[in-house]
């Protein structure tokens, strides 16, 4: 059975990564004062942050229309028997549900929608693993079972400069945002039960980054092989510096650098940093 792999733009996979395994990508959109843009297609990350700095209106994000999924699935049905569709957490977007709905509307191909319960490069880990396994003729059951095991082993934390972005975008409760503002803290955030929640409130960004490193160390010190990504919101120099420091301390971890694109950047804000990792399986 031939299996196609689909994801959305918030996995922020490079064109090269997508082309290597013929991964299909459905873009989410960001709505700015001068129009709506499909991220990774019509607007780059740096262009987005430049525009946001000069706008008075808070950006909004939009999930893909179901019709885009239907169109893609109908195209894939010509060459594939099944599709594994991996999307950002259903707790912050309806994209996953859109894939399920579209899969029920298309005949000739079996659609398996997978809720990553996360986003950005950790979501991309799932996508690349699924694509690698599909290329090796693994069955959909084998792939989905592996993805569930990865989910159990996945960790990701991020630090934002301003909680107001998450609060305005409805991705964090007003109470949590208020506490952060009053105390002038740099909270460490994470996904829990598919939504973004404060993990720990810390006074400074430097200490917050150190706390996240400590969490990585708890796993890395066990001696297993890990892959990890430092993620930045238009602060590549800061992200690269942190990544290089981590790489020196944890030689058994394979690090790379990624970014928070327009859709996720809308909710986190410029200057945010994140770290995600998973044990190699």
Describe this structure as you would to a colleague.
With 281 residues, the protein is an alpha/beta fold. It has eleven helices and 13 strands. The chain is globular.
Overall 3D shape: globular
Measured as a percent range, the helix fraction is: 40-55%
Give me the strand/helix succession: EHEEEHEHEHEHHEHHEEHEHEHE
List the uncertain runs: none
Estimated radius of gyration: 19 Å
Number of helices: 11
**Strand element count:** 13
Strand order of the largest sheet: 10-9-8-13-11-12
Residue fraction in strands: 15-25%
Overall mean pLDDT score?
92
How far the N terminus sits from the C terminus, by CA atoms, comes to 23 Å
Instruction: Summarize the biggest pleated sheet.
Output: 6 strands, mixed
- The assigned structural class equals alpha/beta
Can you give me a brief rundown of this structure?
With 281 residues, this protein is an alpha/beta fold.
What are the key terms here?
single chain, 281 residues, six-stranded mixed sheet, 13 strands, alpha/beta
